[in-house]
Structure formats: C-alpha cells, structure tokens
Input
Amino acid sequence: MIKNRWLTGFGLLLALLLLMALAACGGQPPADEVEQPTEEPAVEEPVDEEPVDEEPVDEEPEAEAATVTYWHTMSDAEVEALDQVIAMFQEAHPNITVETTRFAYDDFKSALLTGLAGDEGPDTARLDIIWVPEFAELGALVALDEAMPNFQSIADNTFPGPLATNFWQGSYYGLPQDTNTQVLLWNGEVFGEAGVEAPPATLEEMQQVACDLSEGEEQYGYALGGTYFWAPAPVFYSMGGQVVDEAITTADGYINGPDSVAAFEMLAEMYEQGCISPNLLGGGIGTSDGHATGLYAMITDGPWMVDIYANDYPDFDVQFAPVPAGPGGSTSSVVGGQDVVLFEGAENQEAALAWIEFLMSEEAQVTMAQSGVIPTLRTVRESADLPDYFGVFLEQLETAQARVPHPAWGDMDTAINNAFQRMLAGEQTAQEALDQAAEEINALLQ
Amino acid sequence: MLLRSERRWYHLATTYALLLLGLLVVLVPFLFMLSTSFKPQQYTFEYPPSLWPAEFTLRNYVQALQRDQFYLYFLNSLLVAVATTTATVFISSLLAFAFARLEFAGKNALFYVLLVGLMIPPVMLIIPQFLVAKRLALLNTFPGLIVVYIAMNLSLQTFLLRGFFESIPTDLEDAVRIDGGSRWTIFRHVVLPLSRPGLATVAIFTFLYSWDEFPWAHVAMKEATRRTLPVAIALFQNQHLTQWGQVFAASIVALIPVVAVFILFQRHFIRGIARSGLKG
Amino acid sequence: MAEATSHVQQTSKQRQELSLPARAQRRLSRQGVAYLFLLPGFLIFGLFVIYPMLYSLRISFYDWNVIDAARSTFVGLDNYRTFVNDPIFQRAVLNTVSYAAITVPAQIVFALVAAILLDQPLRGRTFFRVAYYLPVITSWVIVTLIFEFLFNSQAGFINYLLRDVLRLVDARVRWLADPILVMVPINLLGIWKGVGWSMVILLAALQAIPDEFMEAAAVDGATPWQRLRHVVLPLLRPTLVFLLVVLVIGGLNVYISGLLLTDGGQPQGRSHFILTLMYAETFDRLNFGGGAAISYFLTALVFVVSVVQLRLLRRRVEY
Output
C-alpha cells in the first residue's frame, strides 16, 4: 500500500513534469498577447559569442534587425505607459525590438552588477539619479555627450537640475528621463477635525501644527519614511541646509553648518516631543498607510502617491502643498528621479541611442507623464496634457535641490543617516552628530 | 516509546495540552497571514489586530494572480523544482552509492571535498557562478538554474543518502555479485528500490530548496517570462508601499505545492531520516 | 521486491556470459566504475561550487573591479585587516554568534519535547507532525514577512498581546527600531522555524530505540524522567551531536531574516549579521574584495566550530 502511494506520488510528479514541458513548448503565444513588447521568447537572447543574426521566429524579414535591452524598476502604472511608448517606438523603428526587464528597486543594483560582471548587462537602463556617478566611476557607462550626435540639442531642452545628475568628471553619462520631488501631503480630514484650515506655510508653523495634531500613540502630526537622507531632505533643504560646498570639496561648515544643524535639531526635537511618528526608525506603519488612515496628519512624499492612493485608498482625498518655507522665507525640497543611461557593453549602440532619443522625445514623455512620472523637457512642461496635480510638484521643482552627485554618495548618505540615528537615540546633540558626519564625508571626498 | 506505559487520563490531558499549545504557537502566524490576505489594504493595520477580516475581499488574490503572468511563474517554478529534484535524487544517489559501497583511491579526500559544500555561504559564490554559467551559455535558461541548484544540494543530499545506503544489509547485494551482477545492476535493482524512504527525504529537501531559492534565480534569469515565483513575489514589494494583502495572497498560493509535496511524502520522510546520515 | 530480484539475476547471468575479463583488468575497471559513478556529481560540483569558491578566494585579495577584472589591484590581506578592525563587523560577529547560541539550544529542547510527546500512540499524531513541520517548509522570505507584520511596533499582534491583553508593558515596544530589541523577533523566528526540523530527526531517532530498553527500565520502576535521563538521552547522543553541529552551521549562516527585519543592519549597522554585512559590502558598496573576505572569515568560523564540536563531543561519547 505504502509503495503504491509512493508510486502514485512519483507518477504525479512525472505527469506534472510532462505538462510543464508541453507548457514550455506550446505556451508562449497567450503570454505574448498580454504584454507583447516586454516579452520576447528568450531564445532570441543572443548568447554572447554566438552571432546575433540567428534570431528567429516572429522577427520581421527586414534587414538589420536589432534588439535593445532596457532594465528598469517601474511600478505597474509606469509599465503600462512604457508599453505604449515601446509600441510607438516600434512603429517608428520597425527593425528595432525593445526588450525590457523589470526589477524590484532593492534588488536592482545586485542584478545590474552581476550582469555587468559577466558582460551580460543591459544595453540601456533607467537608473536612480544617485547611482549614475557610481556606475560612471566603475567604467560601466558610455559618455552620452560624446556618443550621441544630437546630445546637446536634447540636453538644452531639459532642466539644468535633473541634467546635472548625469555629470561626472567632465562628461554627461546619461539624460534625465524623469524627475520628481517631495512636497507636503496633508490629511484634510485630520486637519479639519482639529480646526486647522490650511497647511503650514513655514517650518515653524509646521512644527507647531504637527505637535498640535499629535495624540500619544494614536496620532502623529508628521511622519518620515526612514532616516536615510531622502526622508528628512525636504525639511533639510527648506531650512537652508547643505551637505557639501558647490565644488564638492568639503563638508565642513556645510553638513555641520548652522542651517543644517537647525534642520536636524527641529526634527530631533519634534521626535522627542512625540510629534513625529517612531516609524522612521523602522518596523512601524508605513507613511502611506498611516497618512491615508489618519494616523499621520502630514508626510512628505512624491507624485507616485497619487496613483498609490487611487488604487489602495480610493476614498482618501489627499491634499498637496509646497514644503513649508524656512527662516529665509523660501521653500525647497530634494530632487529625485531617474536617468536613462547607455552601457559600455551595448551590442548595437546605434539602436540603443535611437531608443534613448525616443525616451527623451516629447511624445514619450507625455505618455509616461500619464502614469505620474514628471517629464524633464521644457517644451513638455508647457503643454496642457499633464495631469493637474503636477502643478505643485512642478512649482516645488523650481527650488528643489539635488543630492551630491558623487560616486561615494551612498556612503555619505550612510554617514548622515547614522548621525540622524544618534540624535534620535539621544546619544549626541545635532551639532556633535553632524560634526562627526562632516568628518566622515570629508574622508570620502579625499 | 518513552511515554507509552503512561495510560492515566491526566497524562493524556497534559500531552494534548502541550501539543495544542505548540500548535497555537506554530499556527497563529499563518492564520494572520491568511486573514490579512483577505483584507483590503486599509484594514491591514487595523487596531486591535483581528484574525477575522472586518471586510472580506478576494481582490488581493485576483490582483496577485493576474499580475504579470503569475501562472507562468508558478509553472516555471514547478518545472525547475521538479527537474532539480529528479536530477539531484539521481546524481546524489550515484555519488552516495560510490561512497557507501565502492572502493577507490581518494575516497575519503573526495568525500571531505564534498562536505566543504555544507560550510560555505552560497551568496558568496554568485558572481563566479554567473561567470561560469555565462561561459557555458546557461544564463537565462532553465538548465542554468537547475544545474546550480543541483550543485548547491549535492553535499547535503549525498551525505544523507550515504548514511541511508550504509544501513542497507549487504546480503542481497552479495548474492547479486556472486551471480556476476555489475555495480550498476546492484545500484539500480537492489539499492535504489530498497531506498525509497531515503530518496523521498532527499526529494523533499531538494524540492523545498529549489522552490524557494531567490538570489541565483534573481541574477541568472533576466527573461521576464522565465522567472520563478520568489523573484516575481519580490516585485510585489513596491518601493513606496508594501501591499501586505497581495504579498501574503501570493505567498499562500506559492505555499500550496510545497505543502502538497510534504503531505504526499511525509510518511516516508520520517522513515527516511531514521536511516539516513542525518541521524548522526 | 521479489520481481526486482529475479530480474536482477536474469540480467546478471546474461552479463556473465558476455564477458570474462582478466582479474587485473577487473580490478582496474572496478575502480574505473567507481569514478563513473562520481563523474556527473563532481563535474557539476567542481564547476559550480569548487571553482567559484577558489575564484572568490582570489577576489578577497584584491580591490576588485567587478566590471573589468583587469583593473583590479592586488591588496594582499588588506581586505581581511580592514574588516577585523571594523566595529560594525565585530558587532555583526557578536550578533551572529549569540543568535547561534540562543536559537540552537532552544530548538533542540523544544524539538525534544515535541518528539517525545509525539512518540506515543495518539490520535491526530500525523496532523501534529505535519503542522509542526509547516514553518520548516515555508520559505524564509515568507516567514520573515509574517514576523515583520506581527512585530509591527504600532499595530502588530505581539504589541497588542503584550500591552492590551496581558498588560505587561505600558507603551508599545519598538521591536524593529532598536539593535538589541530587534534580536528578539529574529531569534524567535529562528527557533519557531527550526523546531519542526529537529523534531522530525529526533522522532526518527526515538523510533529507532528498541522498545525493550524502555520496558526493562519501566519494570525496574524508573520514572519517565529517570528513563529520559538515563536511557533515552544517552542513546540519542549521536543524534544530538549531529543536530548541534548542523544547527550551529545554520545559525551562523543567518541571513534573510536579518536582512529583512533590520533593513540591512539599521540602526547604525549595529544589527548586522555576518552575511548581511557581507551582502551590503558586496552589492551596496561594491566592495567585492571585502565581501569575499567576510565570506571566507565565516567559512573558517563554521569550519573551526564544527571541528571543535565534533572533537569534544565525539570523544565524550567514547566512555
């Protein structure tokens, strides 16, 4: 009996295996219908030493068929828009196939590096702006201002802030594919219940309102997503903080200068008073969930939140405002976004450049904008096709500042992050913590 | 059986009380996963936490299963796991047979070399493995995943099977040998048929491993249609918001084959372990 | 079985008629046959384990450029020296070793209790066995996410239990925000997930103990505790030693739970484990040489600890 059951089990597995084999051979067509542009049967993936032209099956019989690979970390909504962009591109370039691969943001670097190590990296990718100098320094990227004939005309039409994130040691290693920044998101219901009519206009007011709207562990006035630099950055820059000097030579007098210290002092104080949620230290309720359910009255976040709330909290009516202004009277925030880059190992540079150029075209940028991605072209920003809520973000972008474009930015971020942690734990004052961070950053700049 | 002679009622009551307590500790986390998978996002962190969804929804399952090509990832995982399991069972029993039953020069040395595989952290091998797989044109292919999974499993499974094979009496084997049967005949028609529980144990361990493996699948398979489930589920972790309900719904679906395989083989599993190298 | 054997005899007779090799040749071919059995396994093992191991040993002596290996510079033992002096690394070793020291004994004790309870004729025995094994067969990623969810500091079940139901604490505990507190869920998870595995192995060992041993002891009037102490545990010794060695290896390799629950060593790198630190060095900081060096440190640690355990405990088994 026992033996029989074992045999049944084995038979079952074998049957599954067979089924699988059948599915693997015959199961492709329906898959292709769903996401045609992204999914090409992998047989076509040229295997390095093999000549590329034994490409088969559903390729058009035209000459010079080329494939461009493109890796990214887009959200569901962005992927939908990207599929449209690819369709448009292929209409214009029927001989070029774009193969995209999507990664989780946290795993993207390891996938890229392993791929590059084995000469199996992508031709093009959308990289977080803070990674571009790092990959350029590694020697993985092609300088676009040299390789791309019409680089200058495209670059001239982009905004200088996002463009600058591509610059490393005299060359531009990418083009700004999209940009974003953080603004203040406030929960109208929570504000209304407390009788607060408008979002705070200054940081001083913000601290006041945040504390007024905090009630022990039941409600917090303000919440940050973590302690890494991106999270406190809007308050930091609005307060007038700076990480290093413009020439990126020293952090002394910048990250530990009076404005930077004041920004962190304010946050540490608010945390101490219970006006900032402890979730920034990890293991709490995320800012989006907390904000939408009224646990957090205010957060600072980017344009993608519109899509997230529409999907997961359809009843929540989110309100946007510029980041409250600092003592100098002006608002500021942090620039985020992604650059499109070309890798050294790209097999068909011409086709890859055509794809990059198309991503930077007005039609592609307008299409991507529908999924909440802010375009980087001046000419597109003036067009009327953009979603309404872009207004506040575009306005914020005027004053938003870029993080330090340096290959060691990751380590600088860690230095500031650790300093922030030490303040929150009460181990050091803001000044002490940032003095130490300045020392660590200076060591990285040597 | 240590406790067999105890027949008093309070003994039985204590036994069940302890077992049920253990059951509670084991199952409560799973119950939370199950209930969260049926909750809409806004109730994910309701307070007080409740096991019974205030608002019951299947949306998480629908979304998780529709997302990209979940069914395809599921089939890919199944293909890889079944193929890895079959191949590992075969190859490691060849090895174990040689170490348990055959004499050859360098036997001990080779066995120790194999045991080294138990001591190294797999993550450190990834980049060199990638370079080898690339040289052999195995990247982006199912065989590329499978062959590495086999390699990562050989040490433990061979160790386990060697112990098992050693526990098989040699009488029958001697009879076959006197009849002039080859090593292969002994392996194929004596040792393997007598080792089903051991093979089942190896099958379970290997299946679990290849079903769950993430780091290698993540770097070695770039082709979206050939990804496996763990890689697909990792993509559910949105950069800006964790959709717990969807992640848990997908995890539960991913758990089904594993539980099925275990229930199917569990009887042989215990017997297999009893006679394998694992008993010490 | 009978059919299998008769089949065996048939084929072997056929073979015998076919060939009668010389004795020397036979001995040679006998060894040759052994190598044929080894060939497929060692081919794969050599290519995908041994060669990569040596390759990363080489990386550990370089300031490695992953994109272009030719641009790497040889730095000798610098990578090793750097991390040995790094407080973050020292803390990671401490965290890792205490993880093994806590989770291993706990797993064995709970597993022993469960195995003894289940080693009697009970209704629902199979059900309990399968249920207890459920955490073992669930992937690390999934169980870690479940624990992250349960230990959420603001709305998690554990804080609800402690604060609102049992009233053991006044304020919600920030489990995942503190480098020491975060070790609680990580260690509990390690125990919770591992008990089933040890239980199955101990159950198998218990079932292998002949009933006469127990009965003889019972007739002598020994209490269950005495029987456990003087009959069962000594007989289980080899199994317990084996479990200890294997679980310690597993414990020192703690990885996914640490990575996910501490968000990569937060705060201030104080909650790293050896492997999470290795991963961060390699893929976040692109310090491939340093990452490889850390891996080799861990491998050496595992090796030494295993050998020491086997030496000490095996010897004591002798008398």
